[in-house]
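Q: Could you fold this chain for me?
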Amino acid sequence: MRASRSGGFTLLETLVALAILAIALSAAFRAVGATTLSTADLRERTLADWVAQNRLAETRASERFPALGLTRGRSRQAGEDFVWQEEVSTTPNPLFRRVDVTVFDADGKHSLARLSGFAVRPLR
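A: Sure. Below is the predicted structure, expressed as C-alpha cells.
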C-alpha cells in the first residue's frame, strides 16, 4: 500500500521560503534606513541654505557698504546651530562688493551650504 501524502509543506520548502523572506526584509530595512539618513541630511542642508540666505539679506538690508575681509559667526535655525563665514571681496566695479557666505555644521568642520551675492554701495 501506498502512504497518502498530506497537503502541507515540507521542512525544506518552509526553510527556503523563510530565507527568501529574510533577504527581502533585510533589503527593505536597508532602503528605509538609507532614506531616513538622506532625509536628515537634506533637512540640515536646507536649514544651512536658509542661514546663508539670511546673512545675504541682512547685509543688503543694513544699508551699509560691507567692509572687506572675513567675518565669522553663529546662527540658530529651527533649533539647530550653524557656523557661518562671510567673505567680502572687491569687484571690477567699485560700487559693488561680492559677498560669499559659507555655512558649516555646529562644529564648524563640514561645509553644508555656500551662497554668493553682491552688495551695492548706497547712493548719496
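A (continued): The domain at 11-120 is CATH 3.30.1300.30 (Pantoate--beta-alanine Ligase; Chain: A,domain 2).
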